[in-house]
Design goal:
Layout lengths: L2 H13 L7 H14 L1 H12 L9 E5 L5 H10 L3 E7 L2 H15 L5 E7 L2 H6 L6 E7 L7 H11 E12 L5 H13 L16 H10 L3 E11 L5 H10 L6 H4 L5 H19 L5 E10 L2 E2 L6 E2 L8
Parallel strand pairs: 1-2, 1-4, 2-3, 4-5
Antiparallel strand pairs: 5-7, 6-7, 8-9
Helix pairs in contact: 1-8, 2-5, 3-4, 4-5, 7-9, 8-12
Bound molecules: S-adenosylmethionine.
The site of S-adenosylmethionine has 21 residues, from helix 2, helix 4 and strand 2.
């Protein structure tokens, strides 16, 4: 095994800026996402959304809305009046979102829901300062430079406006990611570009990003969900079809993708034989926060929402 070889290859790929873009994988996963990811992880997203207030008439910005699981919930909670500005980079995911949201908005002339295709960093830069009551980022802040994105989120929020982030934790699917790392370490040439994601190590790490961006932290908590797959093949099917392995296809040498999958599956089979089970956890973090209300509109911060860090 050559961990040094893997490091050298990762360095070369970093220098040549060969970063895997997950969009093609999300396009491919879009028709399965609501069968594999949303029924398992979507309840955790809606529970996190329930921790921030949404009132009729609000303006909500949703970054990386995917198939619209949270968008639909936001629309329901706006109760016929308000604005949702949502963006996603994958046209496939947006198409599913459109189908979900359209029936909810058709008979509601007071609702404006715009689903845009594009990059969330550029999208948020086009949103006026102090114009949003809530910004939501579900399972996607990892695809940005979080402190930079959160600084933009702070800019677009009205004073007192809220932000909700739910994100996979860096140790999620550990048996799987360790197995993948071993396969790449054995043969670094299998890795053709880097999967660049900023997965947080803990909710506290996300809270620090919030603070750095000038946002007050209201809630920070961790969670875990065992994925409903009990054989190596079923685990691989879930992570691929749920979009949880997005970026993988682009990161691996095209001609040898199946070889990588076979080797990871063999590694999982060894774990199953050794431990008698394959309880793979999708760990995650939830952090909500708010833009401080500054006394007299000046720069002296006064966070007067009276909420505690959970
Ligand atoms: C795991 S899905 C989450 C979707 C949705 N927020 C949810 O809660 O189900 C991640 C989404 O992020 C989108 N995405 C990734 N990078 C992006 C970027 N730079 N700008 C906009 N969308 C992005 C993907 O296309 C995908 O739809």
């Amino acid at each position: 095994m050559s961990r040094l070889g893997l490091v050298a290859r990762a360095l070369r790929l970093t220098i040549s800026r060969s970063h895997a873009d997950p969009t093609a994988d999300y396009d491919a996963a879009s028709s399965d996402y609501d069968t594999f990811f949303s029924p398992v992880m979507g309840g955790h997203s809606t529970a996190a959304l329930a921790e921030v207030p949404i009132s009729p008439g609000d303006t909500v910005v949703e970054l990386a809305c995917g198939t619209g699981h949270l968008t639909a919930e936001i629309v329901r909670r706006l109760d016929g009046r308000g604005t949702v500005l949502a963006v996603d980079k994958s046209s496939g995911m947006l198409e599913v979102a459109g189908g979900k949201v359209k029936p909810l908005t058709e008979a509601a002339p007071g609702l404006r829901v715009e689903l845009s295709e594009g990059d969330m960093d550029s999208f948020i830069q086009g949103i006026p300062s102090a114009s949003a009551d809530l910004v939501v980022v579900g399972w996607a802040i990892c695809y940005s430079k979080p402190p930079r994105l959160l600084a933009q989120i702070e800019r677009v929020l009205r004073p007192g406006g809220r932000v909700m982030v739910i994100e996979t934790r860096a140790d999620a699917h550990k048996a799987l990611t360790d197995g993948l790392e071993r396969v790449f370490a054995d043969d670094p040439s299998l890795l053709t570009s880097l999967i660049r994601v900023s997965l947080p190590k803990s909710a506290a790490a996300v809270a620090r990003w919030f603070t750095k961006a000038g946002l007050a932290v209201d809630v920070q908590r961790e969670g875990a969900q065992v994925i409903p797959a009990h054989t190596p093949a079923a685990v691989l099917e879930w992570v691929q079809r749920s979009g949880a392995a997005a970026g993988f296809k682009t990161a691996v040498d095209n001609d040898r993708e199946q070889l990588v999958l076979n080797r990871v599956e063999a590694g999982l089979a060894e774990i199953l034989a050794r431990q008698g089970s394959l309880d793979i956890e999708h760990t995650f973090v939830v952090v909500t926060g708010s833009k401080p209300v500054r006394a007299g509109g000046g720069r002296g911060a006064r966070h007067d929402e009276g909420v505690g860090v959970g």
